[in-house]
Amino acid sequence: MKLISGNANRPLAEAIAAYLGQPLTKCLVRRFADMEIFVEIQENVRGEDVFIIQPTSFPANDHLMELLIIMDAARRASARRITAVVPYFGYARQDRKPGPRTPITAKLVANMIERAGADRVLTIDLHAGQIQGFFDIPVDNLYAAPVMVQDLKEHYDLENVMVVSPDVGGVVRARALAKRIGAPLAIVDKRRERPGESEVMNIIGDVKGRACILVDDIVDSGGTLCNAAEALLEHGALEVSAYITHGVLSGGAVARIAASPLKELVITDSIQPTEAVRVARNIRVISVAELLGEAVRRTAEERSVSSLFY
Ligand code: R5P
Prior knowledge:
The protein is α/β, with parallel strands linked by helices.
């Protein structure tokens, strides 16, 4: 097996490599003066099972191109099999046409990854499970839930926890986590009763006196999360925290979260945390390196990956 990292999240790639007891393959990824990407894999990968670790996080276009170009280099170097390990699969939120003349970028990116030479894809908490069907190659969509459950057990009294989906679209994901810890589920239902009127937040479920845990796949601007936290506290929640797989945290998101009533936001390292994230008063990062490392090992050994979750 050969492990190659792009520039998107080298610490995660190194942690995966450490878990597997195997060094990262030397690979030069640099820029020409005009910012075109140049890649040189500096070790022989002929006939090897190659895993390329690269989330397509900010700057998404650059990191996506790096992933495609590294795969092209590996394919032309006669790698036996290429697995694109994309812990955060960007462009996934455009997974259907919300209106006429709009793109489906999740499908476009899937096409690009396949055409560049991927034989398999390994990712975590895809925004929508059906994106797996946008590929005609095997996709292993891992869940961060077991890592979150372990952390929840260490930091919360599960007797008083209520898992909350911050919107109706996230109910399946939140329910799955609630089931794992035997906690009840509530849902924040955002509704705009009439055009031009502000959104009303209804809470489905009784959150009074509960330690609420918001669960979602992505925190980007932080708007969804902070609004949900405020609504839960207004409805009598004891405290509100959040467990979210991908800390996209664009623009002023970190400041917004620091200023919010959230007790803490727990994200994974699927995206490399910025310095602002690392020093934020109420953001904590847990690692999916072992989960990914184990999935890589099992893929290489042709063993079951799904059994990691049961
Ligand atoms: C939406 O469908 C996602 O699951 C997240 O709820 C959303 O991307 C969060 O975005 P933001 O943090 O900008 O509200």
